[in-house]
Amino acid sequence: MIEVTNLSKKFGNFTALDNINFKAKKGEIITLLGPNGAGKSTLMRCLCGFYVPDAGRVKIDGVNVDGKQAKVLTKLGYMPENTPLYSEMKVIEYLRFIADVYGLSATKFAQNLDEVVEKLDLKSVLEQKIATLSKGFTRRVGVAAVMLHKPHFLVLDEPTEGLDPNQKIVLRKYLTEYAKEAMVLISTHLLEEAEALSTRVLLLNHGKLIADTTVTEMKRKAPDKNLSELFYNLTNNEA
């Protein structure tokens, strides 16, 4: 379980996160939804220990992330929005490097590699240099890398950015299957992602958590079930 308690983060005078509280457990696919600048990426970086919060705490399976990154990060898989990969490596070389970082045995690497390659349809590019890949393939290689060690908690920042409609369907199916034995948290500003994938929605605006809900509940409250209008109203009325 991930527990976020009274989490706040500032950059100078700018408040990126303002007293955030929620819990997340195995079996959930949670969408962090909000306009650009709402605090989604900052929250994810706090969850993964890249940012130290100014107040509050993050616990993963009861262990504080702050100061305990080495202990908890083996349970996490985190892909930031810009998908930082080593462009001069071949895809297979990069995935083998990631496996070594996590200390996977040769047998475990081979097993897990077969799964991510099949589920994300990467077989055709394994021998290509990452620098030659399309944006969609690059994104999927990034997802494969963070899922290679089978993390209990998967945190993906804008995972479908750059994917075509067919690729989005492939990734959504894999994440839905994966979430049966893990917790998946993604960020997006796209309502279609929340509707297609999530079991739960955390709506952020101006660094505040303004709703902890579901797509079904959002539709119930939306005028004529128009999620776009509801999203606009919520994120423009919140100061």
Note down, in words, how this protein is organized.
By secondary structure, the protein is of the alpha/beta class. The chain has a single domain, classed as Rossmann fold. A six-stranded mixed sheet has the order 6-7-8-3-9-10, sandwiched between helices. Strands 2-1-4-5 form a four-stranded antiparallel sheet. Helix 3 packs parallel to helix 5. The radius of gyration is 18 Å and the shape is globular. The model has no long low-confidence stretch (mean pLDDT about 90).
What's the short version?
The chain has one domain (2-237): Rossmann fold (3-Layer(aba) Sandwich).
Distance between the termini: 31 Å
Instruction: Give the helix tally.
Output: 9
Q: In angstroms, what is the radius of gyration? A: 18 Å
The share of residues in extended strands comes to 25-35%
The name CATH uses for the topology is: Rossmann fold
CATH architecture: 3-Layer(aba) Sandwich
Number of discrete domains: 1
Report helical residue fraction. Answer: 25-40%
Keywords summarizing the entry:
single chain; 239 residues; alpha/beta; Rossmann fold; globular
Question: What topology does this entry show?
Answer:
Layout lengths: L1 E10 L2 E11 L4 E5 L6 H8 L7 E6 L2 E2 L4 H4 L3 E4 L11 H11 L4 H14 L15 H13 L5 E5 L7 H14 L4 E6 L2 H7 L2 E6 L2 E6 L1 H7 L5 H11 L2
Helix pairs in contact: 3-5
